[in-house]
Amino acid sequence: MSIYTYICFLSAIAILLGFVTSKISDKIQSTIAITASAMVGSLLLLLLGSFNWLNLDVIATETMKQIDFKSFLLNGILGFLLFAGALGIKLPVMKDQKWEIATFALFSTLASTFIVGFLIYAFANLIGLDVDLIYCLLFGALISPTDPIAVLAIIKNLRAPKRLSMQVEGESLFNDGVGLVIFTTIFAVAFGGQEPTFGGIMSLFLQEAIGGIFYGLVLGLVAHWLISSTDDGSLEILLTLTIPTAGFMLAGVLHVSGALAMVVSGIMIGNWTRKKGFSEQSQRYLDHFWEMIDHFLNSLLFFLIGFALLLVDFTFRGFIMMLLAIPICIAARYASIWIPFQAMKQIRTYNPYSLKILTWGALRGGLSLAMALSIPQGVAFINGTDMDVKDLILLMTYAVVTFSILVQGVTIEKMIQQSKLVDPNREEYLRPSDKIAKSH
């Protein structure tokens, strides 16, 4: 069967899983329920395969390998998901939090990369795994940026206090450029034999990150002009589709960050064009259309994350590193946020739960898995063993991703509810009847 056939069937299964889980319980986020269901299905297939029953695990594993998770996400649906997420960003709130977002996206991502890398290196050597430091830093680079897809899919619907919500969402949308520069640089050193230089890193950053932002501005301006030039509601919505399709692909040709371009153009369309270029009816169509696209692709993506378990090669020492990677990544995230937070709270007042939510709400997802899968197989091995570096990194990545989705994603809701009670603007979360009672 063709890749298109596999995607069609997997999409149908993901949608049906979402339907079934919503009927069982409406308290669990659909993306979490779909991921958990897919993981249970993967474990069941592996169990049946261990008894040589039906060999469905072999078929499912080959299917996952043919899909090429990396290309499907990084070169495919990523543009749609980021553009859809950016459409909902409120620019006035984002401007109010611009320094926080910039600091977390730049400093915290870089700091977390090195903290994770050095801690993984130290603990790996403690259990007898002689892993080169460069590979540990590579893992730190791919796991440190928070995943905008996972964050927006889970955090957004919980209606956290506006400023706090924007800090989490804004950082996750903009730290891709920083994460890409760090990952690409360390990847080139680890597998390309290149020496890291300040000039090379700055050149890559300017080309990918700054170039992506500028390209996104141009893309948004062209789309705004085209949309404003027509009164055809259907054509207006279709014109927005050209941004995450041809626009995203062209970014790859120009060697600029397509992710950042989608975020910038999405913010422009969602704030400027929404008011100036769309009719009132078209604004509703815009929201409904992209909400449907976002929900569909998220369902498929989180289903594939669950089934990516079939691609993970488990070993005993790898299992130990998998368990260690989870607390290491959480601790590194806390430290990388705590440092700038201490300085910023001297001049601004923050929600008492800000640091906790910024740490626990730093979800990882498909982007980290895609970067882990992009590491070449059979090229680098752990010193003194036949264990492939890619297998170890993929195992640790999958552990952190599934923990963040299934554990952090589920438990973050209670923390956000508590943050609403102590937020200065908590009245916006009260029901109308509660507001009336409070006023009396």
Description:
- By secondary structure, the chain is an all-alpha fold.
- 78% of the residues lie in helices and 0% in strands.
- The protein has 19 helices and no strands.
- α2 crosses α3, α6 runs antiparallel to α15 and α12 runs antiparallel to α13.
- The longest helix has 33 residues.
- The radius of gyration is 22 Å and the shape is globular.
Q: What is the gist of this entry?
A:
By secondary structure, the protein is mainly alpha-helical. The chain is 78% helix and 0% strand. The chain contains 19 helices and no strands.
| Overall pLDDT level | 83
Give the overall shape. globular
Summarize the amount of helix as a percent range.
over 70%
Main pleated sheet: none
Count of strand segments: 0
Provide the succession of SSEs.
Answer: HHHHHHHHHHHHHHHHHHH
**Helix/strand/pairing class, anyone?**
mainly alpha
% residues in beta strands: under 5%
Whole-angstrom Rg: 22 Å
* Span of the ends, CA to CA: 67 Å
Give the SSE layout:
Layout: H1 3-24, H2 30-50, H3 56-67, H4 69-87, H5 91-96, H6 98-126, H7 133-143, H8 148-154, H9 162-192, H10 198-228, H11 233-241, H12 243-254, H13 258-276, H14 280-307, H15 316-344, H16 354-360, H17 366-373, H18 389-421, H19 432-439
Helix pairs in contact: 1-2, 1-14, 2-3, 2-14, 2-18, 4-12, 4-13, 4-14, 4-17, 6-7, 6-9, 6-15, 7-9, 7-18, 8-9, 9-10, 10-11, 10-13, 11-14, 12-13, 15-16, 15-18, 16-18, 17-18
